[in-house]
Design brief:
This protein is an alpha+beta fold and 250 residues long. The chain is 31% helix and 19% strand. The chain has helices at residues 5-13, 15-26, 36-48, 105-125, 149-158, 205-216, and strands spanning 55-56, 62-66, 74-80, 94-96, 99-101, 133-139, 162-167, 187-190, 194-195, 234-236, 242-243, 246-249. The two termini are 43 Å apart. The model has no long low-confidence stretch (mean pLDDT 95).
Length: 250
């Protein structure tokens, strides 16, 4: 698609609106699997632009179908609504030296706003694709234990018809064409436990879990390709005076 002068003028004339939208959307909490408030906000915003048939599916994807006959091929364009932060209260935002500082604003709220702005233009101009249908999606569950819930649901509902699938994430410096595999584990260590004085020396689940973590971080990854690992959270132990009976890592 060619960026015509009309489209470029639309971008320029709506830059301030997009800026305000980004600041507003970025403050709405959206931890993975709890994107309800952002989804509802995006739905109402799109409807306010005149988008027809936009809806929220069971996975909390906000879907704007354009030219979808129910049988034709589809192109899917996505940006995700969830962020890695667990906050359920408004996220703190400030602007310094022309930069917006807010948890998750770059991953992936800015891209979601870009996609919403495109969707707004399409809705206002009542544009229709010629060769296939289009799904514009603010998808859920991309981060962490969201486990690509939103993307999986899109493929379950439309997969056999999807001709191209493009998602906007991160910055604008690269195009990724290869899939990245990800496996997530919950590892729990259990011991007998006991009082830290009366049963001193008994196995402590936290200490044993720490030993496992230390061993994990000695693992050498393959030199070819890119393999990574990470212990993201640890928890366990009921009190400071207790030999922990259980400890868990993700």
């Amino acid at each position: 698609m060619t960026l015509t002068n009309e489209i470029l003028q639309y971008i320029d004339s709506h830059a301030e609106e997009a800026f305000r939208l980004l600041c507003e959307l970025a403050q709405i909490p959206a931890p993975s699997n709890h994107e309800e408030r952002r989804a509802e906000f995006c739905l109402k915003w799109l409807q306010g632009k005149g988008a027809e048939n936009v809806f929220i599916d069971e996975a909390l994807n906000v879907i704007y179908p354009i030219g979808d006959s129910g049988a034709n091929d589809l192109m899917v364009f996505m940006a995700h609504s969830d962020v890695v932060f667990p906050d359920t209260t408004p996220l703190p935002l400030k602007i310094e030296n022309g930069r917006i500082l807010c948890p998750g604003v770059g991953d992936d709220t800015a891209n979601a706003v870009a996609l919403l702005t495109v969707a707004g233009y399409i809705a206002e101009q009542k544009l229709m694709p010629r060769d296939c249908g289009v799904l514009l999606v603010i998808n859920s569950g991309e981060e962490g234990l969201g486990n690509l819930k939103g993307s999986r649901r899109i493929m379950a509902d439309f997969g056999c018809r999807v001709k191209e699938f493009i998602t906007f994430d991160g910055n604008a410096t690269a195009i990724v064409t290869k899939a990245v595999g990800s496996r997530r584990y919950r590892v729990t260590v259990k011991t007998e436990g006991g009082h830290s004085y009366g049963k001193f020396g008994a196995p402590n689940a936290i200490a044993q879990l720490a030993q496992l973590i230390a061993r994990l971080y000695q693992v050498q990854v393959p030199a070819i390709g890119k393999t990574t690992y990470n212990v993201g959270t640890i928890s366990g132990g009921p009190s400071v005076n207790t030999i922990a009976q259980e400890a868990t890592m993700l």
